[in-house]
Amino acid sequence: MFKSRAMPAEVGSESTGEASAPLVKVPPPASADEAEAAPSAPADPEPAPAQASEPRGLSLLGGDGQLSKEEARLALEALKQTVIMADMPDALPQRCILREAMTEYFLSVRFDDPDDWLKRIPMYLRQGTDPAQRKYLGQVCDVVQRQL
After folding, report:
1. How many domains would you assign to the chain?
2. Would you give the end-to-end CA distance of the chain in angstroms?
3. Is the separation of the CB atoms in 105 and 135 below 8 Å?
C-alpha cells in the first residue's frame, strides 16, 4: 500500500528538533570574466525618499486645477488620511465621511455644496457617518468641485 517516507528536517532546524535561524541561499561566486562584465552595485544604496509614506493624492489635495475622477478619488483619500484620521485617530473607519461608499457617492453625484447634505445624501449614508466629521464637508466639496 503506502510506504512511509522519512520527512526531511525543517529548513533552519537541526535534527534535535530545535528551531534556528532560517538558512539563506548564497549564490556561487562569479568567475573573473563575469565579475568584469557585470557592473558593481553601489556599496551603500540611497534611502527611499520620505514622500514614499505619504498618500498618493497628497499633491493633488492642495492644488486648484481640475482633476479626473481618479485624481479626485486620490485627493479625497489623502484628505481622509492626512486630515480626518490625523485629527480623529480613534474614529471608526467604517463611519468615516470618506469611507469607500461615501467617496464613490460624492464623486458620482458631484456633491459640491455642504448645505445639500440633507437634500442630496441618502439617509442610509448619512446615518452611517460619524456626525463629528461633517465639519470636513467643505473640504470634501472643494475637491469634488475640481472634478472634470
Report:
1. 1
2. 70
3. no
